[in-house]
Specification:
This protein has about 260 residues and is of the alpha/beta class. The protein has one domain (about 1-255). Helices cover about 30% and strands about 25% of the residues. The protein is built from six helices and 13 strands. The strands form four sheets. Strands 5, 6, 8, 12 and 13 form a five-stranded mixed β-sheet that branches. A three-stranded parallel β-sheet has the order 2-4-7, covered by helices on one side. Strands 9-10-11 form a three-stranded antiparallel β-sheet, with no helix packed on it. α1 runs antiparallel to α5 (about 140-150) and α4 (about 125-140) packs across α5 (about 140-150). The longest helix is centred in the C-terminal third of the chain and has 24 residues, at about 230-255. The model is unreliable at about 15-30 and about 135-170 (pLDDT under 50).
Length: about 260
């Protein structure tokens, strides 16, 4: 398996460089390359101390085989990548704790937050499958996807229900539409209804206990076309910020 040199992408806006990230990834997929992209989040200096005690009990997560999973079009996990810990800078839990310390200092004061899981996936399955089909006729799928996404509304209105994939990859629900991914196994799958007109969502799984109270949160953050190169890091940042908001909202209700 080939390993590409990591690409560093900042959330700071770059000059007009409209590109479909999934299209770029697809080109590397065709070449049999497992590509790492490092999202550098623009932020103020991180907090050095918190109003709460943070205990990190996470296990190290490693992306599964590219050839048999995210890079294999016959796999239900095709196009879905786990972002390993070194692919988000600053480290994702430290950035989350920084946000919580700023926004929820009083709510969390004196409490112990024990984090057991903080997983971040990028699910491009729909875009990459469409790209693969386009590539069969056009010969250059990445370009085909990029051309479409530059026009907002073309691929932006994608609905997963019309994909021709295996039964393992997509199951339908009357209210939620198609499930894109590996059933409901907590590895980056999402329901078509969760896109809200967006594409290629980031899916976050967060498992912690606040004192002795267990809390589990799942966030689906779609990207909105047209896209620029810097948008990859921007949506990673937004996913973590939405997680912080969801956690604080949950605790406001639970700790009354």
């Amino acid at each position: 398996m080939n390993i590409c040199k990591p690409t560093v992408i900042s959330s700071e806006k770059t000059p007009s460089f409209a590109v479909m990230i999934a299209g770029v990834i697809f080109i590397f997929s065709v070449a049999g390359c497992s590509m790492k992209r490092v999202a550098v989040i623009e932020t103020t200096p991180l907090s050095e101390s918190y109003s709460f005690k943070l205990v990190d009990k996470r296990e190290t997560e490693k992306a599964e085989s590219f050839a048999t999973r995210s890079g294999n079009i016959y796999s239900c996990q095709y196009g879905t990548r786990l972002l390993e810990n070194d692919e988000v800078v600053p480290e994702r839990l430290k950035y989350l704790a920084h946000i919580l310390n700023q926004s929820g200092r009083d709510i969390l004061a004196g409490k112990q937050l024990t984090v057991k899981r903080f997983s971040l996936y990028w699910n491009q399955s729909v875009e990459m499958r469409r790209g693969a089909l386009a590539g069969m006729s056009a010969g250059f799928a990445g370009g085909a996807i990029a051309a479409n996404v530059k026009t907002a509304g073309t691929i932006g209105a994608l609905v997963a229900t019309d994909l021709v994939v295996s039964n393992q990859a997509v199951k339908s629900s009357p209210k939620q539409g198609a499930l894109v991914g590996c059933k409901e196994d907590y590895s980056g799958s999402y329901w078509a209804s969760e896109l809200n007109g967006g594409i290629a969502p980031f899916v976050v799984y967060f498992d912690l206990s606040v004192n002795e109270m267990p809390v589990q949160i799942r966030i689906v953050q779609p990207m909105a076309p047209p896209l620029e190169q810097s948008d990859y890091a921007k949506y990673v940042k937004l996913s973590i910020e939405r997680l912080a908001d969801a956690l604080l909202d949950t605790l406001k209700l639970s700790l009354r």
